[in-house]
């Protein structure tokens, strides 16, 4: 079996340090992997150290490691690009502050993907602000189909699963049909309307006050809570969610269930076309499809609209910065 060529940006960062080892140890399945570690020039020595440790782990599935500071080299012929490298938010920053700090990285990487990536490329953006970075990369890679770009909201999905599991006493494996809508930010909406716990409607098992006053804020502000507790943004859980998202994108979601993935909107559920927004999606053989026809109650509508409005503001901001055309 030919190896899956995976480029990981920000390879020497916190998330990279967990993600690379998960990828090399079979996180995406039993296909061999070739890892391309992209870093900025000043951090290449650290990336060399990570590569040494990957080698020292003698992973049976790891067929090659390359280190680069040139995105064209890292993306050359790549099948999967995990765009993690970006400046993380610190306690005094909001996601808006990140747009100007990080937008330029994704302009350059979008262009490099357009020039160099393999014909089957899938691009998953973890670096924040993830949805809008994915938009910037996509617009700067006009020859790559729009559906090959996504942004990570799987961490929010996993956080929501875990909170509902804690509350109901059910294992996460017994919960399905949960959706995170919108932006990977505090405006996101973790929707339990269609979720089931052991086949029963989740909303029959928990009271509304818990959903509104406890569940939704806990999930939406979890990133901030982790930053406050650790003094650094979430890393191992973000790496784990990145692996989950990539594995499901390439391999498929289980029958009867769906996952949450930020993808380019086709106008479904009233989300403006072109925004990279989180939706309920099923995946199969490297393709995703938005789950259509779900009822959206007025409370959910308001929450989805608020998060989508934030995405439109971010899009307008990157337009003004000249990162995407008007
Ligand atoms: P980190 O600072 O530990 O590592 C980032 C790495 O990226 C650094 O090594 C840096 O040198 C590198 N980098 C910067 N610019 C680069 C470029 N142009 N090309 C290649 N590498 C580059 O940060 P981290 O904790 O690993 O987080 C990475 C990103 O992921 C941040 O933006 C963070 O906010 C985001 N994040 C997203 C989620 C999510 O769910 N979507 C969750 C957690 C963190
Ligand atoms: C997270 O959700 O943990 C990250 O996006 C970090 C952050 O800035 O909230």
From TrEMBL:
- Record carries keyword Transmembrane: no
Q: What is a single molecular function from GO for this protein?
A: L-malate dehydrogenase (NAD+) activity
Query: Which Pfam families did the record assign?
Result: Ldh_1_C, Ldh_1_N
Entry annotated with the keyword tRNA-binding:
no
Q: Which reaction does it catalyse?
A: (S)-malate + NAD(+) = oxaloacetate + NADH + H(+)
Q: Which residues form the Lactate/malate dehydrogenase N-terminal domain?
A: 5-143
Give the EC number(s) under which this enzyme is classified: 1.1.1.37
The residue ranges of the Lactate/malate dehydrogenase C-terminal domain are 153-314
Q: Which Gene3D superfamilies match?
A: Lactate dehydrogenase/glycoside hydrolase, family 4, C-terminal (3.90.110.10), NAD(P)-binding Rossmann-like Domain (3.40.50.720)
The record's NCBIfam families line, in alphabetical order, gives:
MalateDH-SF1, PRK05442.1
Identify the HAMAP family for this entry.
Malate_dehydrog_2
Protein name as annotated: Malate dehydrogenase
Q: Which species? A: Microbacterium betulae
């Amino acid at each position: 079996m030919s190896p899956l060529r995976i480029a990981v940006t920000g390879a020497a960062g916190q998330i990279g340090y967990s993600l690379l080892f998960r990828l090399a140890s079979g996180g995406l399945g039993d296909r061999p992997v070739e890892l391309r570690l992209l870093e900025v020039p000043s951090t290449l020595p650290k990336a060399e150290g990570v590569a040494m440790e990957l080698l020292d782990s003698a992973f049976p599935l790891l067929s090659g490691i390359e280190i680069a500071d040139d995105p064209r080299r890292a993306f050359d012929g790549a099948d999967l690009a995990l765009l993690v490298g970006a400046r993380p938010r610190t306690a005094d920053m909001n996601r808006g502050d990140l747009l100007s700090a990080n937008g330029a990285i994704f302009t350059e990487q979008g262009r490099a993907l357009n020039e160099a990536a393999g014909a089957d490329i899938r691009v998953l953006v973890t670096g924040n602000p993830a949805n809008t970075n994915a938009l910037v990369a996509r617009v700067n890679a006009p020859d790559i189909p729009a559906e090959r770009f996504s942004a990570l909201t799987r961490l929010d999905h996993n956080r929501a699963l875990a909170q509902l599991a804690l509350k109901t006493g059910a294992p996460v494996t017994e919960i399905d049909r949960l959706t995170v809508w919108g932006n990977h930010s505090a405006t996101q909406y973790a929707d339990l309307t269609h979720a089931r716990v052991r086949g029963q409607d989740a909303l029959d098992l928990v009271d509304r006050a818990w959903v509104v006053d406890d569940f939704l804020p806990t999930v939406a502000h979890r990133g901030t809570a982790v930053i406050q507790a650790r003094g650094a943004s979430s890393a191992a859980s973000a790496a784990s969610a990145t692996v989950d998202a990539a594995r499901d994108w390439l391999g498929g979601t289980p029958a009867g269930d769906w996952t949450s993935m930020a993808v380019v909107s086709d106008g479904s559920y009233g989300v403006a076309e072109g925004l990279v927004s989180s939706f309920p999606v099923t995946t199969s053989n490297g393709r995703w499809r938005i789950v259509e026809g779900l009822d959206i109650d007025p409370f959910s509508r308001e929450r989805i609209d608020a998060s989508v409005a934030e995405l439109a503001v971010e899009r307008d901001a990157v337009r003004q910065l000249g990162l995407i055309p008007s």
